[in-house]
Write a structure and sequence with these properties.
This protein is an alpha+beta fold. It is about 25% helix and about 20% strand. The strands form six sheets. A five-stranded antiparallel sheet has the order 1-2-3-7-4, with helices on one face.
Amino acid sequence: MSLNSFGRLFRVTTWGESHGAAIGCVLDGVPPRLALNESDIQPYLDKRRPGRSRFVTQRKESDTVAILSGTFEGLTTGTPIALEIQNEDARSGDYDKNRDKFRPGHADYTYQAKYGIRDHRGGGRQSARETAMRVAAGAVARKILGPDIAIRGALVSLGEKEVDRARWDWAATEGNDFWCPDSEAVADWEAYLDEVRKAGSSVGAVIEIEAAGVPVGLGAPHYGKLDADLAAAMMSIHAVKAVEIGAGFAAARLSGEDNADEMRAGADGKPEFLSNNAGGILGGISTGQDIRLRFAVKPTSSILKPRKTVNLAGEDTEISTKGRHDPCVGIRAVPVGEAMMASVLADHLLLHRAQCG
């Protein structure tokens, strides 16, 4: 299997399977002399960790990260950084009953058709367990970006439930199990997802990611556009089916004068934008405004309710996926989206410095 890497100057390669001995990643291009220890990475992994609440998979993984290479006396050396997380609570037997069946909504069939072999245990490489290493990589990317660039994410819709943007409070995201910025919506979301979970079903979600403090000039026309790389990064996350940047699809319903982000002269001599329909990116290059995007995550495909499918022999059958699964994978996708934003921005920051100083 090829193409397990992303990024150009800040390059991330992930490895490992859901039920293998461990998962890990190798980071190339990290500048030397950055302070880096496991304690800089672990808080972000804890945000994504399974078993945090009843609304996510109950697989018990500490997701404790180890730095295997690329640092010396607490500083990066400029050499490849290898990170590893041991798998501690894989229950492969949960998947034996369905090893010869293709789970609808999963990549079982396409992996089998492409490679002629697949790891049926939790989906193997196709499992979202891989995203733990993206989160670890994103923590290192934040070191490259520095403290002036702040990245944060929120769940803005859960199935048919949406936040009230009039009540938006970023601080509220740290106080509930959904990373919801609308504290008044949380109780309703809890009851809703409890019903979904008890019914053996699942729902999708929409996640919003914001990056503040991004300087002007990151990205390049035409084939190195920052928004194109961000969209590709978000689409590479498991279960993501759509990405919007700025106004997104809503821009198609605006007039030219409403969509245009007008400018006025700022006190510092730089232009000030009167709106941000572009999401902080024009012509593929950052404007200095907050970068905002949203991505949609489909409902978890592993559900208890029987679904029609076929087996390896090409015969019709039914499947019910037992085991420990998220009733909404979008909840744990919030820190993953933050990490992918950080990784893409770190890559573009290094590219910008290489060309423009």
